[in-house]
């Protein structure tokens, strides 16, 4: 459904499933793109750059119920952990870890516990956000 990426990696849907976010991790600059889901979920359209990770890069991604994108992030000290982006693509927060984070998910009874799979450890923290059901 998408042919404008070199190495698609993490992906997730927006809370209303109207958008699909996809991480691209080629040998060069790493990016996250967003696509509109159209035709009753059978096609993707209007692919565009959501954010350029610059010094670091995203890996596993998940959305919260407000449409914010939570990204496992790698990039070295001061970058490793989780980066949170608003639906418009602006970074609004970070959870810093002592090692890079490859994947993450929301869990717990209220889906407000963030689980992070890092290079050699699993971390968790309660956050003031709720993960999308099923994501």
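Q: What amino acid sequence fits the structure above?
A:
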């Amino acid at each position: 459904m998408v042919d404008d990426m070199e190495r698609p990696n993490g992906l997730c849907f927006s809370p209303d499933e109207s958008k699909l976010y996809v991480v691209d991790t080629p040998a060069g600059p790493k990016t996250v793109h967003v696509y509109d889901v159209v035709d009753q979920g059978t096609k993707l359209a209007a692919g565009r750059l959501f954010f350029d990770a610059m010094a670091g890069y995203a890996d596993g991604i998940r959305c919260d119920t407000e449409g914010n994108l939570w990204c496992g992030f790698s990039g070295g000290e001061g970058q490793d952990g989780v980066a949170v982006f608003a639906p418009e693509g602006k970074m609004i927060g970070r959870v810093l870890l002592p090692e890079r984070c490859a994947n993450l998910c929301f869990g717990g009874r209220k889906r407000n516990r963030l689980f992070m799979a890092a290079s050699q450890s699993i971390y968790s923290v309660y956050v003031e956000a709720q993960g999308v059901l099923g994501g």
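Q: And what stands out in the fold?
A: The radius of gyration is 14 Å.
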